[in-house]
Amino acid sequence: MIVEAKDRKINIIDTTLRNGEQAAGVVFSKHEKIRMAKMLDEIGISEIEIGTPSIGASEREIIKEIVASGIKGKLFTYTEAIPENIALAVECGIKNIIINISTSDLHIKVKYGQNKTWVLNQLRETIAAAKHYDLNYIISAEDATRTDLEFLLKLLHLAQKKEAYRFRICDTVSRLDPFRTFLLISTILNTVDFPVEVYNHNDFGMATANAMAAVRAGAVSLVTSISGIGEGTGNAALEEIVMALKYLENIDLGVTTARFREIAEYVAKASARAVPVWKAIVGTNVFAHESGIHADGVLKNPINYEVFEPGEVGLTRQIVVGKHSGSHTILHKFKEFGIELTINEANDILAMSRSMSVDLKRPLFDKELMYIYKDYEDNNKKI
Amino acid sequence: MRGLDVLTEFSMKAGHKIEPKKIKIDDTTLRDGEQTAGVVFANDEKIHIAKMLDKVGVHQIEAGIPTMGGDEKAAIKAIAALNLNCSILGWNRAVVSDIDDSVECGVDAVAISISASDIHIEHKLRKSREWVLDSVKTAVDHAKKYNLYVSVNAEDASRADMEFLLQFARTARDLGADRLRYCDTLGILDPFETFMRVKTIIDIVGIDVEMHTHNDFGMAIANAIAGVKAGATYINTTINGLGERAGNAAFEEFVMALKYLENVDLGIDTHLFRDISEYVAIASGRFIPTWKPIVGANLFVYESEIRASTTLIDPKTFELFGPEDVGLKRKLIIGKSSGVHTLISKLGSLGYKIGEKEAAELAEIVREKALSLKRALFDSEIIDTFNSFIGTGPVGADSKNKGVNK
Question: What is the ipTM of this complex?
Answer without folding.
Answer: 0.92
